[in-house]
Design brief:
Blueprint (H helix, E strand, L loop, with lengths): L3 E3 L8 H16 L7 E4 L1 H10 L6 H16 L12 E7 L9 E5 L5 H8 L4 H19 L4 H12 L9 H19 L7 H15 L3 H10 L7 E7 L10 E8 L6 E9 L4 H5 L5 E2 L3 H4 L1 H18 L3 E8 L2 E9 L4 H13 L5 H7 L2 H7 L3 E2 L6 E5 L1 E4 L2 E7 L2 H9 L4 E5 L7 H6 L2 E4 L7 H9 L2 E4 L5 E3 L4 E4 L3 E4 L3 E5 L4 E4 L4 E2 L2 H8 L5 H16 L3 E5 L3 H9 L5 E5 L9 H9 L3 H26 L3 E5 L12 H8 L6 H13 L10 H7 L3 H15 L4 E6 L5 H18 L4 E6 L2 H5 L1 H7 L2 E4 L1 H9 L6 H4 L1 H7 L15 H15 L4 E4 L7 H10 L3 E4 L4 H12 L1
Parallel strand pairs: 14-15, 15-16, 16-17, 24-25, 24-31, 25-26, 26-27, 27-28, 28-29, 29-30, 30-31
Antiparallel strand pairs: 1-2, 2-5, 3-4, 3-5, 6-7, 6-9, 7-8, 9-10, 11-23, 12-22, 13-17, 14-21, 18-19, 19-20, 21-22
Helix pairs in contact: 4-5, 5-7, 6-7, 13-14, 13-20, 14-20, 15-36, 20-36, 21-23, 22-23, 23-27, 24-25, 26-28, 27-28, 28-30, 30-34, 35-36
The structure holds phosphoenolpyruvate (PEP) and magnesium ion (MG).
Magnesium ion binds next to helix 31.
Length: 868
């Protein structure tokens, strides 16, 4: 295998092999943009190294060849004492991953070549020693695993209140000695001075960082497969820290927060790489570069236009200016907020860069869902205490916490928390995931906090510089002396950047207003509207709602639902009607039972009337009652306690005896669904009669009667006979079908389809029974461990397990349709609103998905994307 690619050999389609960074460096090189020369070690080499514990044969020779070629091209050898070539070693997986080792700069420096570097820079000793101390610091932290704080503290001790740029050559040389001492102390070895050894160790460290705990955590959060490995880029160094005619920056071709066009970026003079993102010194807005170095600025803008036209999308960029010469160090299609995604997609259509179909595929259901989050009530009284940058939108309210650990701890106790840090770094990842929102006092829109929060769709306000954050005392002080301590509630607005004391009430989003009332008063809603119309026109899947009240039914319709796919009738028996069900189940005589049924029937008829009226002529699938019995019976423990007291009446004792008789060890596998209908005479008949009579009163009503938990066709047949009789009696037509939620039903679908006019996959129960996972228990009990172990990347109750549960669905679809070609097929488990599962439903040829009313827009969009 070929393990090393020169930048001139790759291109952007090789992300699997070269990682995102390597592939795009190659692409930029081929576009003729100013990229420092270099090469990429493939992720395949990394996979081999991780699997075998050793690098693949031939890798070191291949790396040596490419290094020699680079040295020849640059006219300098790596670390050459009098005129050194220096390189950076940078990780770069297929998907960008903040948890991994990022970069070691200035590799090739040692006690000799530091003088050569100074000479190269025209006798600039300060620059050379600054580069050397940076190497030891970065190498020490990321390659040797030394706590970065040690170096920070030593640096702070020399720096005092000055900026790092104020240190002179002598001080920096002193720091190099101090840093070397730290390395010796912490590792028991000297800092490696052989340039090739430095490079080799850095490459191995990048490989190893694939399995750093933070990287694992990030992958799980973002659902990135665990076995991809990372590529490693070796790039000839260019220097942003030579003086004030040099610097480094990051830029976006459009605002990743709003999607609006303009100049967005941060620049830092006389600085190297990580300084910008780490928030070491405060950056200046990119526009100001025009004043500092107009030529580089103009060139950068031209390159940004080239990149946008080439990638046909928002790009983010890292660049360095070395003594007035611009260099591109990275680009990629940039992360963006949900609002920006919709705006940019439609802007690109208007610019003629992409089609509207492509625009639909550029946005996701998850992004749409984010736009439907509530925001703060503009009219509510609020006490604003600070304003930072609007780094990632949304409205978050929670208790202030000042460390990642505490965020995790409190959120595990069910508390909403806002994580507050001066600035975040990859160590804060767990806390960022646990928090409702993130607030920092340092760093810009490209800081770690901002980038990671945007990626997660989490509310974030960053760079609120008026706040004095003390993580040690767990407080922050706002202007005017307001002190917020751990546990105090604050509210942060990631759309405006504002920070409020206390809890601010939240209201619906503009996008929800649009779905609810068609109100279209801003460009974001306009973009959503265009994309939704196209998605609706493109999709093959119908979208229905899981709804069991007229209010939910009406909302579902407003949100674009085309019917009800699941009306859970047991939800109609809660509250005061529970008693009637209890009477029914516990009735010991036919008279008692009939009395309970007679009391229920008119109530049920009213329920169905309301729903039919709300749904107009759209189909309404009514699932006959499916209660796990225990939910409708008095608690056996309470009853036993009561029966043991003197106050217990004869009735209490009878009740206890009856409940004991019906008590089940596994109610979810017990007397539920069709079983209950068959065991309690008259129950299903009562419901069917109520449905038929309600339908008769609403012109155009389209009832569909659905039998739950069927495992054998015989169950269905006997219920169907009775239902047909009642429908004929009342003079109403309705389809009669079944849920497929027991594996046996899926496997005998051909038989079952003989007796069913439609199937609706109840994938909640189907998942429960296919995996043998109690759906009420396992997610909190041991799924975290299963996720840790990588047994699955996401709960099968959230995203349909295609291999197992999906296989059952496929079998049932094929068998069912072979027995009855016009069999209508849908899904009504929670998966009906999950993007990945919706794509599966499209692929296996279902006719519709059904989900909760609020997910309907998401389902419409994803169904459209699946079809395009
Ligand atoms: C299902 O099992 O997927 C289903 C929709 O029914 P319920 O969730 O009511 O059991
Ligand atoms: Mg079910």
């Amino acid at each position: 295998a070929k393990y090393v690619y020169d930048f001139t050999e790759g291109n952007r389609n090789l992300k699997d092999l070269l990682g995102g960074k390597g592939a795009n460096l190659a692409e930029m090189t081929n576009l003729g943009l100013p990229v420092p020369p270099g090469f990429t070690i493939t992720s395949e080499a990394c996979r081999h190294y991780l699997a075998e514990g050793a690098e693949p044969d031939g890798l070191s020779e291949e790396v040596a060849e490419h290094l020699e070629a680079l040295e020849a091209q640059m006219g300098r050898r790596l670390g050459q004492a009098d005129d050194p070539l220096l390189v950076s070693v940078r990780s770069g997986a297929k998907f960008s991953m903040p948890g991994m080792m990022e970069t070691v700069l200035n590799i090739g420096l040692n006690d000799e070549s530091v003088h050569g570097l100074a000479k190269q820079a025209g006798g600039n000793d300060r620059f050379a020693w600054d580069s050397y101390r940076r190497l030891i610091q970065m190498f020490g932290k990321t390659v040797l695993g030394i706590d970065g704080e040690r170096f920070e503290q030593a640096l702070d001790a020399v720096k005092g209140k000055r900026q790092d740029t104020d240190l002179d050559a002598g001080e920096l040389q002193g720091l190099v000695e101090t840093f070397k001492g730290i390395v010796r102390e912490e590792t028991g070895k000297d800092f490696p001075t052989d340039p090739r050894e430095q490079m080799r160790l850095a490459v191995m460290a990048v490989f190893d960082s694939w399995n750093a705990p933070r990287a694992i955590l990030y992958r799980r959060q973002e659902r990135i497969p665990a076995d991809l490995g990372t590529a490693v880029n070796i790039v000839a160094m260019v220097f942003g820290n030579v003086g004030n005619d040099s610097g480094t920056g990051v830029a976006f071709t459009r605002d990743p927060g709003s999607g609006r066009q303009g100049i967005y970026g941060d620049y830092l003079q006389n600085a190297q790489g990580e300084d910008v993102v780490a928030g070491i010194r405060n950056t200046i807005p990119l526009e100001e570069l025009e004043r500092i170095d107009k030529q580089s600025y103009d060139e950068l803008l031209a390159i940004m236009r080239t990149l946008e036209n080439h990638y046909k999308d928002l790009c983010d960029i890292e660049f360095t200016i070395e003594r007035g010469k611009l260099w591109m160090l990275q680009t990629r299609v940039g992360k963006r907020t949900a609002a920006a995604a919709f705006r940019i997609a439609t802007q690109l259509v208007d610019q003629g860069l992409i089609t509207l179909d492509e625009a639909v595929t550029r946005v996701t259901g998850d992004q749409l869902a984010q736009l439907m989050f509530p925001r703060f009530d503009g009219g509510a009284a609020k006490q604003k205490i600070a304003k930072g940058m609007n780094a990632s939108p949304g409205a978050a309210v929670g208790k202030a916490v000042f460390s990642s650990e505490r965020a995790v701890e409190l959120s595990e106790q069910g508390e909403d928390v806002i994580l507050i840090r001066r600035e975040t770094n990859p160590d804060d990842l767990a806390g960022m995931i646990a928090a409702k929102g993130i607030l920092t006092s340092r760093g810009g829109k490209t800081s770690h906090a901002a980038v990671v929060a945007r990626g997660m769709g989490k509310t974030c306000v960053c760079g609120a510089e008026e706040l004095e954050v003390s993580t040690r005392e767990r407080t922050f002080t706002a202007p005017g002396g307001v002190v917020v301590s751990e546990g105090d509630v604050i509210s942060i607005d990631g759309t405006s950047g504002e920070v409020f004391l206390g809890e601010v009430p939240v209201v619906d989003s503009a996008v929800v207003e649009y779905f609810e009332r068609g109100i279209q008063d801003d460009d974001l809603v306009g973009a959503v509207d265009r994309i939704m119309r196209r998605a609706d026109a493109a999709r093959r899947l119908g979208v229905r709602a899981n709804a069991d009240t007229p209010e939910d039914a009406a909302r579902a319709r407003r949100f674009g639902g085309e019917g009800i796919g699941l009306c859970r009738t047991e939800h109609m028996f809660l509250g005061e009607r529970r008693q009637l069900v209890e009477d029914l189940v516990l009735a010991s005589t036919d008279e008692d039972r009939q009395a309970a049924l007679d009391a229920l029937e008119p109530l049920q008829k009213t329920d169905f009337l309301g729903i039919f009226q709300a749904m107009g002529g759209d189909p309404v699938t009514i699932r006959l009652i499916d209660p796990p019995l225990h939910e409708f019976l008095p608690d056996i423990v309470d009853l036993s306690v009561k029966a043991a007291t003197d106050e217990a009446t004869e009735k209490d004792h009878q009740l206890l005896a009856a409940v004991k008789r019906l008590h089940e060890q596994n109610p979810m596998l017990g007397l539920r669904g069709v079983r209950l209908g068959l065991v309690i005479p008259g129950l299903f008949a009562m419901q069917v009669r109520a449905i038929a009579q309600a339908a008769k009163e609403v012109p155009g009503a389209k009832p569909e009667i659905m039998i739950p938990l069927v495992a054998a066709v015989q169950e269905l047949e006997s219920v169907r006979e009775e239902a047909r009789g009642i429908l004929a009696e009342v003079g109403v037509e309705a389809l009669i079908g079944t849920m497929i939620e027991v594996p046996r039903a899926a496997l005998t679908a051909a038989q079952i389809a003989e007796a069913a006019e439609f199937f609706s996959f109840g994938t909640n129960d189907l998942t429960q029974m296919a995996w043998g996972f109690s759906r009420d228990d396992v997610e909190s009990a041991f799924f975290p461990k299963y996720l840790d172990l990588g047994i699955f990347g996401v709960s099968p109750f959230e995203t349909l397990d295609r291999e197992g549960v999906g296989r059952l669905v496929e079998i049932a679809v094929a068998e069912g349709r072979s027995a009855r070609p016009d069999l209508h097929l849908g899904i009504c488990g929670e998966h009906g609103g999950d993007p990945d599962s919706i794509h599966f439903c499209h692929d296996v040829g279902l006719d519709y998905v059904s989900c909760s009313p609020f997910r309907i827009p998401v389902a419409r969009l994803e169904a459209g994307r699946a079809a395009l």
